[in-house]
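Collaborator request, handled under Task 6.
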Amino acid sequence: MQNNLIKISIIYTAFCLNIIAITAQKKVWYSPSKIDFSYGYGNQEEPFLHNKDYDYNTNLFKLQFYYLLKSGKFDLDLVFEPTLGFAEHQLLNEHFVKPIEPDYISRREEFTKKKQLREYILSTSLIVRYTIYKSTNIYALIGIGPMYLSKRTERLPKGFGFVEIVGLGITTKIYKNLYFDIRGLYRHLSNAELNQPNSGINIAALELGFIIDL
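Structure tokens returned to the collaborator:
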């Protein structure tokens, strides 16, 4: 499945851009309908994700551009999400790095120390939302996009990779065209077998944001 991640990402992005072109005939295509500024915190210590081999947590700062594709009983949004993540990683189980690997002793020493790294992400998500009461709605999202990691870990090398995202959220109006947004996410980081290792990193995250309706 990971071997096809690059193709899926390219096809998905092309599909989203094509939808924008079709649905934006009556307005400037690059003008978003909403902008969101959000902060999130994620780690892999949640009970349903916890992996005793490593620790990974990240602070996420995100700018989101919403493009309304369909309105009605269910609204459909396409969202572009440039994201900067400040992450901390540590290998907890040194035996994850096996003796058959080159320079395994030095790699164990490197990865068992806490390491600060950056995530540079440009993901694209589709959001399906449903209004439950006046200006309050719930939604589900799915996304994918390219990523760059600033340092290597025992699970992923430094450099180019991908992020996959699924989540649920709720948005409510707090003042005129200003909305408060909260969402829970599951994030999977990998490199689609472009390089080794590719064990992947799984993260559960909570994000809080403010959406401006333009």
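The cover message to the collaborator said: "The chain has a mean pLDDT of 85. The first strand starts at residue 34 and ends at 43. Please let us know whether this matches your experimental observations."
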